[in-house]
TrEMBL record:
It comes from Phascolarctos cinereus (Koala). This is Synaptophysin-like protein 1 isoform X1. One of its GO terms (cellular component) is synaptic vesicle membrane. It is found in: Membrane. Residues 25-235 form the MARVEL domain. Belongs to the synaptophysin/synaptobrevin family. The keyword rRNA-binding does not apply. InterPro entries: Marvel (IPR008253), Synaptophysin/porin (IPR001285). It comes from the Eukaryota. Its main location: membrane. It is a multi-pass membrane protein. The chain crosses the membrane at residues 115-137, 149-170, 209-231.
Length: 256
């Protein structure tokens, strides 16, 4: 289905195509995969950027007969854990003679997390622009030599950046799990005192963060696979077809 809006004439008297609403490119791999990329980008930044969680452990003081008091720390995107302090959920602090608020979680993973989320948002915006181009200006897209080539270059760059950003974020996520998991107890000096006993309690499930990593690699596959369909729209592909057909032709015999 298509709807032609206008045409205009340039100063050289050539006919230039204007806006032509046409949803048929969405049925082709070029447009359909772009929709999948758009959806996958939404899941990527939403599952990572919207995360909030907390980790906690139980403290008992043998000398003060204090048992099972909870110490916790709340953390969220962009995961600057070194700025997140512990605090006692009970009214008293210090607890067991320890000022828990003077302890902070370990690690700053904001660079990897923000790189991943920012890139996913940029990809989301680019997919919208590309879909507008495919639906409204596909005639201009296929008549131009530069626009498909630019689209192809951006597709290759995006594939590489999805690999880099997702790998960095996956490594950061592993470190976040270590910093907020059971190993948290070993990072607190006061928990090694003979009168203070610390037992790990719980940490918020990071299933959504695992999903963000999965969608990051899914995006890489989608963009890598779509590179071929974008390449077919470029002049490089038409030139290769011309050279292939030209090489296969046989010159007619010359008459005597």
């Amino acid at each position: 289905m298509s709807y032609r809006v206008s045409h205009r004439i340039n100063r050289f008297g050539q006919r230039m195509s204007g806006l032509q609403i046409n949803f048929s490119p969405l049925k082709e791999p070029l447009g359909f995969i772009k929709i999948l990329q758009w959806i996958a980008a939404i899941f990527s930044f939403a599952t990572c950027g919207g995360f909030k969680g907390k980790t906690s452990f139980i403290v008992s003081c043998s000398s003060l007969s204090i048992k099972n008091e909870t110490i916790e720390a709340a953390f969220a995107y962009p995961f600057r854990l070194n700025q997140v302090s512990l605090h006692a959920t009970a009214a008293q602090d210090p607890l067991c003679g320890v000022t828990w608020s003077s302890y902070f979680l370990i690690g700053d993973f904001s660079s990897s997390a923000q790189f991943y989320v920012t890139f996913a948002v940029l990809v989301f915006l680019y997919c919208i622009a590309a879909l507008v181009l495919y639906i409204g200006y596909m005639n201009l897209y296929r008549e131009s030599r530069k626009i498909p080539f630019i689209d192809f270059v951006i597709t290759l760059i995006a594939t590489f950046l999805w690999l880099v950003s997702t790998s960095a974020w996956a490594k950061a996520l592993t470190d976040i799990k270590m910093a907020t998991g059971e190993s948290l107890i070993g990072q607190i000096d006061s928990c090694s005192d003979k009168d203070v006993h610390c037992y790990f309690d719980s940490v918020t499930s990071m299933g959504s963060l695992n999903v963000s990593v999965i969608f990051g690699f899914l995006n890489m596959i989608l963009w890598g696979g779509n590179a071929w369909f974008v390449y077919k729209e470029t002049s490089l592909h038409s030139q290769s077809n011309v050279s292939t057909h030209g090489a296969g032709t046989v010159a007619p015999p010359t008459g005597m």
